[in-house]
């Protein structure tokens, strides 16, 4: 049976692309190598990690924060198996939901590894060894990404783990060492740190969260240190040795120098992710790649007619919502519409406590480009709702063009930052100014008032500081 579109991969980019294409009247099929839909995000990434972040935050709150509200309870006990069940149930609900949506939209599913054998032809190799060919007018590659391995350090997903293994540890480590101070390392470190692990982070660079506004990252590191995190910045891991008792992690300064040995009973390798293109047959059909990523034009098309690519396998940040927007855009383009993604308004969130959320340019970006800007900043210590919640850490920072007042970037560190950033995204999508936001009435008392106050601060007229 010939299709209008075959999508290889059913992560956020792939499944959203499939649904949108079906809505637009295209006959769609998907190819998925896992037994369940949803890709890394739903199965072993975004969704299970957020389930554990939420559960561990509740545990920590019960142990340390409720007394401040006048709620006195006995010392809480951890049922790790029940917490993991919550994670697994959350994953199952989400992946089954995608399956339901596929049936609702009459999308056909093929389970197995997909290989493009020619333009318009995908060979699907099932786990039982059987193969079949599926044909379509167009193919979208949405195969996502996988963890980057550290040379010389073998991940066994038991004591030396990737993010996948770190989501399923059978016990709370006494000492957890994390290689990499990016989003994944800090989030998973937060999970196990709240549950009782001593967390140490080794980072090659001299800062955490590369790409995040430097002021935000600096303040966040201080907050994590207060939570018990230990940092070895500007260091690299040379080797990890397994002993009878634990793991010996050998580190040295990134620029060279004397080595130090750190003890741990679990090591998490979280140094980044790489595009998954192995086995797709891209070289054989002539699809151009650069540094492992598929090269596409402004309409998501590769150099081979009829083959498109989206998500983590192409340029841009490796974010699920970026992949979703690209999936919608390419589906609309294939249906004859004008799909588009505004890459200047792609938010990013770190789901720690406090949360970090950003959209648009950082101060470092604007300085590097020589763009004159104004900034407004408002602390959550001056926000009534934040005080009532006992979550007064952090601030909102808004960066606006010095001449036009158009908002160029918004950076939030604080409670519910991941929700608050949506207001900034809408404002920036419509080319709004700090003045537009400052003159918009916000409900009182809410955390969102801090966003408005930061906008007022761009013109040096915040009310509550």
Give a quick rundown of the structure.
With 465 residues, the chain is an alpha/beta fold. The protein has 14 helices and 24 strands. The strands form 6 sheets. Strands 1, 2, 3, 4, 5, 6 and 19 form a 7-stranded mixed beta sheet that branches. It has a 5-stranded parallel beta sheet with strand order 8-15-9-10-11. Strands 20-21-24-23-22 form a 5-stranded antiparallel beta sheet.
Keywords:
465 residues, alpha/beta, seven-stranded mixed β-sheet, globular
Describe the structure in your own words.
The chain is of the alpha/beta class. Helices cover 33% and strands 26% of the residues. It contains 14 helices and 24 strands. The protein has helices spanning 12-23, 39-44, 46-64, 80-104, 163-166, 183-194, 214-226, 282-285, 320-334, 363-369, 384-389, 417-429, 434-438, 448-458, and strands spanning 2-8, 28-32, 108-111, 113-118, 121-125, 131-141, 145-147, 160-161, 175-179, 198-203, 230-233, 235-242, 247-253, 260-264, 266-269, 273-275, 289-290, 293-294, 307-309, 348-350, 355-360, 373-379, 395-401, 407-414. Strands 1, 2, 3, 4, 5, 6 and 19 form a seven-stranded mixed sheet that branches. A five-stranded parallel sheet has the order 8-15-9-10-11. A hairpin with a 5-residue loop joins strand 23 and strand 24. The chain is globular, with a radius of gyration of 24 Å. The N and C termini lie far apart (66 Å).
């Amino acid at each position: 049976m010939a299709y209008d579109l075959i999508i290889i991969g059913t992560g956020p980019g792939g499944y959203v692309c499939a649904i949108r294409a079906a809505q637009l009247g295209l006959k769609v099929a998907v190819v998925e190598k896992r037994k369940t839909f949803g890709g890394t995000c739903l199965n072993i990434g975004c969704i299970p990690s957020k389930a554990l972040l939420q559960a561990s935050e509740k545990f920590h709150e019960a142990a340390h924060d409720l007394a401040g509200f006048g709620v006195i309870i006995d010392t809480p006990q951890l049922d790790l198996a029940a917490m993991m069940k919550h994670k697994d149930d959350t994953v199952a609900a989400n992946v089954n939901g995608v399956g339901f949506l596929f049936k609702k939209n009459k999308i056909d599913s093929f389970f197995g590894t997909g290989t493009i054998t020619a333009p318009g032809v995908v060979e699907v190799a099932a786990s039982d060894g059987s193969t079949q060919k599926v044909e379509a007018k167009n193919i979208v590659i949405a195969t996502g990404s996988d963890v980057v391995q550290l040379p010389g350090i073998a991940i066994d997903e038991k004591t030396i783990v990737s993010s996948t293994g770190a989501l399923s540890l059978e016990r709370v480590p006494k000492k957890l060492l994390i290689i990499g101070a990016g989003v994944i390392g800090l989030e998973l470190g937060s999970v196990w740190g709240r549950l009782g692990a001593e967390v140490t982070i080794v980072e090659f660079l001299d800062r955490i969260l590369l790409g995040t506004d430097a002021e935000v990252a600096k303040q966040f590191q201080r907050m994590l240190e207060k939570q018990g995190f230990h940092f070895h910045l500007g260091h690299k891991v040379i080797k990890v040795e397994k002993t009878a008792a634990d793991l010996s992690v050998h580190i040295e300064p990134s620029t060279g120098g004397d080595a130090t040995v750190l003890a741990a009973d679990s090591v998490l390798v979280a140094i980044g992710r790489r595009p998954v293109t192995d086995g797709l047959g891209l070289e054989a059909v002539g699809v151009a790649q650069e540094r492992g990523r598929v090269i596409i034009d402004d309409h998501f098309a590769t150099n081979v007619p009829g083959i498109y690519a989206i998500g983590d396998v192409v340029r841009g940040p490796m974010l699920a919502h970026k992949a979703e927007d690209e999936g919608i855009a390419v589906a609309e383009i294939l249906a004859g519409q004008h799909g588009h993604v505004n890459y200047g308004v792609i938010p990013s969130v770190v789901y720690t406590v406090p949360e970090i959320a950003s959209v648009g340019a950082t101060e470092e970006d604007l300085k590097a480009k020589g763009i004159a800007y104004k900034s407004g900043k408002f602390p959550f210590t001056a926000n009534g709702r934040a005080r009532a919640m006992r979550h007064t850490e952090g601030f909102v920072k808004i960066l606006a063009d010095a001449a036009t007042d158009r908002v160029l970037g918004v950076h939030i560190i604080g409670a519910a930052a991941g929700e608050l950033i949506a207001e900034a995204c809408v404002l920036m999508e419509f080319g709004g100014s700090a003045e537009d936001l400052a003159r918009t009435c916000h409900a009182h008392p809410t955390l969102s008032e801090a966003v408005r106050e930061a906008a007022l601060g761009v013109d040096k007229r915040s009310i509550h500081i």
